[in-house]
Each structure stands twice: as C-alpha cells, then as structure tokens.
Amino acid sequence: MSDADIGLIGLGTMGAALALNIADNGFEVAVWNRTTARTQEFAKEAGPFLASQITPTETLKDLVAAIRAPRAIILMVPAGQPVDDQIAALAPLLSPGDLIIDAGNANFRDTNRRSAATGNIGFFGIGVSGGEEGARNGPSIMAGGDAAHWSRVETILTAIAADFQGSPCVAYLGPEGAGHFVKTVHNGIEYADMQMIAETYGLMRDGMEMTAPEIGNVFSGWNDGPLKSYLIEISATVARTQDAATNGPLLDVIVDAAGQKGTGRWTAIEAQHIAAPVPVIEAAVAARNLSARRDARAEMEALFGTGPVPLNGDITLDEMEQALTAGKILCYSQGFGMIAAASNEFGWDLSLPDVARVWREGCIIRSAMLDDMAAALSDDPKRALMAAPVFAEILAETHVALRKVVGAAVAHGIAVPALSSGLAYFDTMRTARGTANMIQGQRDYFGLHGFERLDDGSSGQHGPWAV
Ligand code: NDP
Known about the structure:
Shape: globular
CATH architecture of the largest domain: Orthogonal Bundle
Radius of gyration: 25 Å
Bound molecules: NADPH dihydro-nicotinamide-adenine-dinucleotide phosphate
Strand order of the largest sheet: 3-2-1-4-5-6-7-10
Number of domains: 3
Structural class: alpha/beta
Number of helices: 19
Number of strands: 10
C-alpha cells in the first residue's frame, strides 16, 4: 500500500491502455474504475508481468491510500460532468499538494475553470492523442497547467509518450487549459485531414468510377510521397478491406453518416470566439453535420436530379495528390494560425514549434510533413506556415492542381467543401486588395459605421452616398 507512483481512474479504452503503458515503463500505478468488474477484468488482462506494477482497487479510498504522497491521479473518463463528479468524489479524500490530471478530451474552458477552483489540490490538463494503440505504446501528449505541476509528472509522461527519432512527443505547452486547447485544434485539423481524404475518395469513386480496393491502392501509393501519414495509411487499409458477409469492399456497405464527439465543433466555435480564420476545419465540421442528414440528402437528390457525373478524364490521380497536398498545407497553416491567435488572446506564450514536434509521432495527425512544419516554425514562429519557403514553394506548384481538381469537381457536381475552402482561403490570402471596401461602404450607408480612406489614411469617414 501507498507505494504507487501514480493513480489512474477510468479503465475504458484509453485509460486501460495508458495504465498498461505506465506499468510497462517501470512505474507502479494504482487503478480504479466505476464498475468494479472492469477493474478485475483489467487486472487479469494485464498478465503476471505487468500485474506486479499495478494495484487494482475497489474504492476511491483504497485508490488514494495506494498512491505515494504527494499523489498524482490521472482521470481518463468522458469529458464534462463525469470529470466534475470525479473531482468532487476525490477531493475529500485527498491532501493538500495532491494533483488531479485530466487526460480526457476536455473543453479547455472547463480546464481553466477547474484549475482555478481546486484550491490546494492541484489540477492539470493533458490532451492525449493516438487512440488505444497510441495510449498503449506511446501517445502524443499536450500538457497545460501550472509549470510546478508539470515538473511533478514530467518524468512519467515523458517515459510513456511516443518517440520521434529520439525526441519524446510530449511538451508542457502553457498555463491553464493550454494543453487541452491544443488538443482541440489537433482534433479540428484531424477532422479536416479526414474530410479532404474523403473528398478525394469521392472524386475517385464517383468521378472516376474506381472500386474501393483500387482507391486503396492509390492511397497506398500516396503514402510513399509527401502525403505520407497515419491517416493516408489507414485510409488505404479501410478502402481495401473486404466484407465477409457481402464478399465486396467493406467500405461500400458502411453508412455515409460520420459520428463526432464535439472536439471539431469546439475548434470551429473557439476559432469564431478569437476571430481566427479556419475555414477548412469549419467546412469539415459542417460536412460531418451534413453527412448525418441522410434523409434530407436523398430527398434533395430526388428533387434536383441525379448525383455526381463522371469526370471523364478531366483530372489525373497525380493532380489529386497535389491538390490534397496543397489543401493539407493550407489547413495546417490555419490551425497553427489559430493556436498563435489563442496564445495572444489568452497570454499563454505557446511555442508553435513545440506543438508541431509533439504531433510528429503518436497522434492521429502524425505525418512526414509535420517534421518539416516543426523546422519551418522554429525558423520563424511568427511567419504563417504557408509562407515558410519550403511550403510556399510546394504551394506555388500544387495550387494549380488544387484549382483544377476543385474546378472539375464543381463542374461535375461533386461536393468538395474542404478542398474548395482551402482554395478560397489561398485566393483570399494572396489578394492584397480585397472586396471588403464594398462591405465598409454598405455598413456606413445603413449604420454610419464609418470607413478608413486608402488615399490619406484618415478613419471615421462617412460617405455622402448619393448619386
Ligand atoms: P470509454 O467509454 O472506453 O471509457 C470510459 C471510462 O470512463 C470507463 O472506465 C467508464 O467506467 C468511465 N466512466 C464513464 N462515465 C463515468 C462517470 N460518470 N464517472 C466515472 N467514471 C465514468 O472511453 P475512452 O477511454 O475512449 O475515453 C476516455 C476519455 O479519453 C474521453 O474524454 C475521450 O474523449 C478521451 N479520448 C479518447 C480517445 C479514443 O480514441 N477513444 C482518444 C483520445 C482521447 P465504466 O466501466 O464504469 O463505464
């Protein structure tokens, strides 16, 4: 008793894998789960070797007693009320100096609130990415809260994190909910990456009449090039998997309505709060919402005509690969821009190169490109990622294909909302003289909001607005 290095509450998919990872790295971990049967099952599954590192407990009191003081306890339960409930149940059992670490997908505003509210019990928030496999073998970890709390858990979190060429994919990013904020943006980017891949799948399926295994082979090929990433790799496997029941591709029998737990939506909402433009992510969130409206889509198809028309060789697979490359750079440029905006807004002093570094391995959006992004952001953290020489050069080449792909899709009635948002963002950003002068004229016309003049720089000007 009272020997464990750390405690963990919540032995679901992520918590169980994380506890085994901690034990595997030589730390002693005490665990507790709301449903005791699960704790017993977990202890059995851990096997005799790891069991010596794990203390299963059946009450919170026993859990607390099993951990060496000052204690650190990880919560791996669903975000929201369950976290507040667990804190409320634990707090009376803890002592000053003990630390609760929320490792779930919390809304960073909840983490801010909890950090401020737990009094002499510390509270720390970590975003953990990589799914079950990552949690078991090395996730990417985005930490936020008091630096003093970080130093208490740094050794364990560094040991269990993914490794990219000798560098652990974990970083203390900033105070309060900074870690959970960065995890939220990570998930927003994940939504966008997945949506853009799904759009190229749609172009191949509906525009080129390719079969799922053929599309899987294309993704496989792309995984040897600039798009090399976990999401492209798994998309290849998903597309190539056969269904035993129908003897056809499993993908063909999966309902086209995407689930979501809210982190992509939070990214879009927070982006609006801090006026950070992330249109590719917003398009991806909207696309998931639209995907759920299957009946409405069937009705509209009946009303407005047939679905997509074949592309008839208008675009090539190479152009599609380039379009996806351009879309990805534009999306990440927006995501890092949003993190920079939040850093300013909340006074967090976030290091963008560190964010890129912890995303290089372990997490769902890990990709070869993230290493170049980390280097580009280190070179000049204030410059937009899309303007870094290495990415500006790729964009200069690939935006032509992005335009061609989006143009062909539009002409043939195939929806590519994320790719086309990326293109619109690119065109907006490279147009020094935009069209908001018209909006300022309209605002002044109906609301006397005033405008600034280009010629003499004077502000608060009003038009006569008469012909
Ligand atoms: P699971 O549903 O697999 O497990 C949930 C765990 O939380 C179970 O141990 C469950 O206990 C416990 N739990 C549920 N409700 C309560 C409650 N009200 N009070 C106490 N314990 C409760 O979830 P995951 O492991 O997938 O997710 C856990 C957290 O990790 C979430 O915040 C999730 O968003 C985040 N996450 C998940 C990822 C994934 O790929 N699954 C990736 C990254 C983060 P019981 O056995 O009693 O039901």
